[in-house]
Amino acid sequence: MSGITELTLQPTDLRRVGHGLARPENVLAFRDGTVFTSSNKGYITRIAPDGRQWRIGRVPHDAPTTMALADDDSLIVNNTGDGNLYRLQLDGKSELLLDTIEGRPIGSANYVFLDSRGRLWIAVATSTAPPHGPADPARATGYIAVLEDGQARIVADGLRWPNEVRLDATESYAYVPETMAQRVLRFRVTPEGGLTDKEVVGPATLGPGILPDGIALDVDGNVWVALLSGNGLVIITPEGRTHTVFDDPNAAGLSALAAQYDAGAIEFPTILGCRGRHIQTLTSIGFGGPDLRTVFMGSLLMPHLLSFDSPVAGLPLRHQHRPAAPPQPESELAPLDENGA
What we know:
Layout (H helix, E strand, L loop, with lengths): L14 E3 L9 E3 L5 E3 L6 E4 L5 E4 L7 E6 L5 E5 L5 E4 L5 E5 L1 E2 L2 E2 L3 E6 L5 E5 L17 E7 L2 E9 L6 E2 L5 E6 L4 E7 L5 E7 L10 E6 L5 E5 L4 E5 L5 E5 L4 H13 L4 H5 L9 E7 L5 E6 L5 E5 L32
Antiparallel strand pairs: 1-26, 2-3, 3-4, 4-5, 6-7, 7-8, 8-9, 10-11, 12-13, 13-14, 14-15, 16-17, 17-18, 18-19, 20-21, 21-22, 22-23, 24-25, 25-26
GO molecular function: hydrolase activity
Organism: Amycolatopsis pithecellobii
Protein name: SMP-30/gluconolactonase/LRE family protein
């Protein structure tokens, strides 16, 4: 396991990447050190290795959350504002890609992932419209879908807020953080691209008030899990053991969230109230750099990404078989502070 269980960090060990970011919830990292991240201002921010930032395009309802790079250098993004998927060109042009699955509105698409065969995996947090108000953690209306050859189909349903989907090295298994169930799931991928044999990876629950969000896999088969409410990072080994790399817990916030969880009505401000002193509401993990040993993490609240070096490489994603990010067409430079006027 390359000593992965010996990896322990303090908040002061983490580097900051980017500046003035607005809800950089998702990260898409490249081998040349470029990182794309989402923004609740409606556009994608591109951060160059030298720190320059570009603002790419705009999608309706101003809520792109996650992205995948297609072979034509366009970005496929999900939009939590209306729950749909869009194709965003690097020059800023955008178009609707998908708004229904099996004849019904998507609901609240929350994540997109392209596999080696070009299939687009979609995690949908809930089949209803983008949620407002309290969330019932026991409500199992989330699902996983696959878009292939222009047709979208549901491959797993009855899930409690699935937040992402990642495939292993052979694309034989799919890993899904089930946020409202406080756990990570694994499915076997069938030859037809379906999902079956659901099982829990690691502990049955990550602990009172602890909500997992984004995940990533490394080349040794470890599952890296960002803790939204725990402000931390844990690794689940292939043997099922859980190792904490770092965390910055807010005891009072977690207690309040656990009480709402037990009552069946979680308020979004309560999740945000779990922010730590140094680290706040982590949501995503991406490996980048030449050897895929540079970790980047996004969040809901911090105006920058976090980064550190890993002793083990991340599992290469489809876009990481190229040596660098695609060239950037002429585009407006991002402002120094996206939260400014």
